[in-house]
Amino acid sequence: MEQRLINVLGSLALIVLICGTIFAVAEGVARMLIEDPYSFGMQKSMGPLAELNWEKISVGSGMARAKSQAYAEHPWAVDYVKEEEKYNSMRSRYTYDPFGLWAPKSDDAVTSSNSMISTNKLGYRSTLGSGETEDQKPVRNIFFLGGSTMAGDGLLRDRDLIPSLVCEMLNAANTRYRFVCKNFAVSGYSSTNEVLGLTGHLKAGRIPDVVVSYTGINDVWYSVVLNQPHFKGAMFTALIEGTIRTEPYERIRYRLLQMVLDGSVLLRWALNRQYVIQPVSAYRVETPSFDPDHVAERIDATAMTMVENYKHLRKLGQAYGFKYITLLQPHMFSGQKPLTEEETGLSDRILDVVPILPSIFKDTYKTVLGIDRQNPDALQIFDLTTLFDEVSSSIFVDFMHVSPTGNKHVAQKITDILHTKVP
Questions:
Q1: Is the pLDDT assigned to residue 90 strictly greater than 50?
Q2: What separation in angstroms does the CA of 78 have from each of 67, 191, 391?
Q3: Model pTM above 0.90
Q4: Quick one: which of 42, 144, 171, 305 is 20 to 30 A from 412 by CA?
Q5: Do 178 and 217 touch, CB atoms closer than 8 A?
Q6: Looking at 133-273, which runs of residues are DSSP E strands?
Q7: Degrees (nearest 5) of the Cα angle 369, 375, 380?
């Protein structure tokens, strides 16, 4: 009797072990196959630029970034990474924006459980440092425009975002006004997207006193390096032209995954979030020509587009009564920053694929400033390319995004400019 009980228990244990193994494998396969609901689709890059993806030209994402040299002074980063996935599952990220193509999706405000990350009801990252609402000082509203570096993509708490830091610095130093800063930057936005986005806010009745445009890198990266009009330009082109297609194996993957999830309540519970299951659509991205003449043409065209957008920003300011400043962003290849070992490795990996990247940025910025100097009524363009020359520590996590320490340097410079140019 005792032996039979032992055999039964042993059999049950084996069954549990087998079922657990099958479940673990199924869960792992499902996690690997599930399409990210925020994805714009899958591109098929041709040529050497196929190697130039953000994972390869950065210190990595998630925990790898939290443990990089750039975050050595920020131990909170580990907790941030643990919380970020839960936070992302609670919010919608992007939606179609008429004429602007994409924008944050308006939704209920969302805050992570550790209060490091939050978004407001318009879908933008929250901005801190606006002072006490009971303060009777006159309010000055500052709008911040830009791409991912201003928007706060990556491993940055609300308090580490440039708008939050600038607002805190302004309110700490100014006794005349209470500054309220609003972050309207969107990942992937170029100067053209910024003008269109700002126009939408103005039409909606959101009128600033000052606009800060932190721009340049996305214009150069997409229009000059990739020879596309904007972020995911090839995808939008393929969508309009009807050349986006779903690979046969993707349709099989979709059906298989849907069957697994539909038939497993336990698996859906274990995943603990709602996924959008759909086939991945593929589109082709051709590698642009790096012939010197072709690059020079793209630099001239991009610089002219940037300047015209800045002029339009000035005209909007004149029409709506706000002041503005435009800042050309620093990057890893600008100025004379002493690169650390980690940053040198990043630089080498990027230059292995696009050796002329530093000269592309340098020549485009130089052309922008040259066009501006020829205007009788110069624009408010400030060159920040030498901003990090005295920074010896690691701050870059790729060639454009920086750590909270880097953001503090940017914020201090913006604050100084606002004090002198926009009293």
A1: yes
A2: 8, 33, 24
A3: no
A4: 305
A5: no
A6: 139-146, 178-183, 210-215, 245-246
A7: 55
- Residue 78 identity (one-letter amino acid): V
Instruction: Give dist(CA 330, CA 411) in Å, integer.
Output: 12
Residue 114 CA to chain centroid, in angstroms? 22
Averaged pLDDT for residues 342-355: 90
AA identity, residue 196: L
Residue 208 CA neighbour count, 13 Å, CB half: 27
- And the tokens for 408? 């503090």
Output the six-digit token pair for 23.
């479940």
How many other CB atoms are found less than 10 A from the CB of residue 281?
18
Residue 248 corresponds to which tokens in the numbers above?
């046969």
End-to-end CA separation in angstroms for the chain: 91
CA distances from 208 to 76, 317, 338 (A): 34, 9, 38
| Residue at token pair 């609901």 | 37
Distance CA 71, CA 155 (A): 9
Helices 292-320 and 191-203, axial angle in degrees (round to 10): 20
Residue 3 or 322, more confident: 322
Q: Please calculate the CA angle 360-198-191 and round it to the nearest 5 degrees.
A: 5
104 vs 295, residue with greater confidence: 295
**What whole-number distance in Å separates Cα of residue 240 and Cα of residue 376?**
41
Cα-only R_g, the chain: 24
Separation of alpha carbons 319 and 314, rounded Å: 9
Span 352-378, average pLDDT: 88
Amino acid (1-letter code) at residue 292 = P
Q: CA-CA distance, 333 to 358, in Å (whole number)?
A: 5
Give the span between the Cα atoms of 209 and 24, in whole angstroms: 56
Can you tell me the distance from the alpha carbon of 183 to that of 128, in angstroms, rounded to the nearest whole number? 10
Give the separation between CA 34 and CA 364, rounded to whole angstroms.
Answer: 40
Q: Token digits for 207?
A: 């009128």
C-alpha to C-alpha distance for 257 and 268, rounded to whole angstroms: 12
* 214 three-state secondary structure: strand
Mean pLDDT of the region 399-412: 96
